[in-house]
Amino acid sequence: MALQHPSAPSCAASPVPRPTARSGVVHVNTRHTTCYTVVGNHLAQHRELSLLAIGLAVHIQSLPVGALVGIKFLSARFPESEHRIAGALRELEAHGYLARTRERLPGGKVVTRTVSYNQPGSKVTPAPRPARTPERPQKQTPTAPEPTPEATRPAAPTPVPVPREPLPEPRTPAPERHRTAAALLAELHHHEPRLLLAEREVHRLAPAAAAWLERGAAPDAVRRTLTARLPDDLKHPAGLLAHRLTALLPPPLPAIPVVTRRDPLQNCEGCDRAFRSAAPGHCRDCRPNHREAA
């Protein structure tokens, strides 16, 4: 009697695509249905862009609207340095994949607006507004009068003003020191673009910076203290600088002690005894005899 095999043989494995050429890449493509970004070959196979610029462009195109794409934010997100990321952004700007403009908001704050183009040469068009459908008139039915919002809503508490800490001021007026402090504040945006101050803010903060210079702080040390470790969501640069100039004010220089100089020792011309005097002559005991002899 023949042996029985109740278990069916296992199914054959899915065939692996074989290369049609002897060398080169083989693609195993899976259809994406969610979480994907369409990138043109004009970007993926660009012959003039660096690999870093191509990868950075793909990353920016995959981000939602309003995502942060600043140099400091990207350098914290990826292992590349700020210098390399800044160069890649300039490449994308030169080839039309990126546009960065600086705009001043109504409150005086300057922000950088970044526009990403998945196809160079395209224009930004405003989103169409949805069409408004005419409302049908409804029959008004008499209803009981509702209480007014002012009668039912509790009164909002009166905001208590927070006293602003006064800014430090120099003890002695020095016009040259004040001009140095004002120039230091006006040039901060050259070292950190987010610290662009209005002219009135420079005049308001200049005495506080002059107080630092009066206490022996070098201009470079003041600049490093004001620009170090800025928050990513900096909204009020003048307020941040006022806080740092007040909270981090160095102590005043110690007073120079007054040294009383003593007269040097002299040899008496009469008895050759040593005594202290500003000029050579006679000691205290020989002075009367010297006057009588004269």
Task: From the structure above, extract its key features.
294 residues; mainly alpha; two-stranded antiparallel sheet; two-stranded antiparallel ribbon
- Please state the second-level CATH architecture of the domain at 41-116: Orthogonal Bundle
User: What structural class should be given to the helix and strand makeup?
Assistant: mainly alpha
Number of strands: 4
The total count of helices amounts to 11
- Give me the Rg, rounded: 40 Å
Q: Which fold name corresponds to the CATH topology of the domain at 41-116? A: Arc Repressor Mutant, subunit A
Largest sheet entry: 2 strands, antiparallel
Please provide a written account of the structure:
Helix content is 34%, strand content 7%. It has helices at residues 41-44, 51-61, 71-77, 82-94, 149-152, 175-186, 188-191, 199-214, 219-227, 237-247, 286-293; strands at 98-104, 110-116, 265-267, 274-276. It is mainly alpha-helical and 294 residues long. Strand 1 (98-104) and strand 2 form a beta hairpin. The chain has a two-stranded antiparallel sheet. Strands 3-4 form a two-stranded antiparallel sheet. Helix 8 (199-214) runs parallel beside helix 10. Among the domains are: 41-116, Arc Repressor Mutant, subunit A, CATH 1.10.10; 175-247, no CATH class; 265-294. The mean pLDDT is 81. The chain is elongated, with a radius of gyration of 40 Å.
Compact description:
The protein is mainly alpha-helical and 294 residues long. The chain has 11 helices and 4 strands, in the order ααααββααααααββα. 34% of the residues lie in helices and 7% in strands.
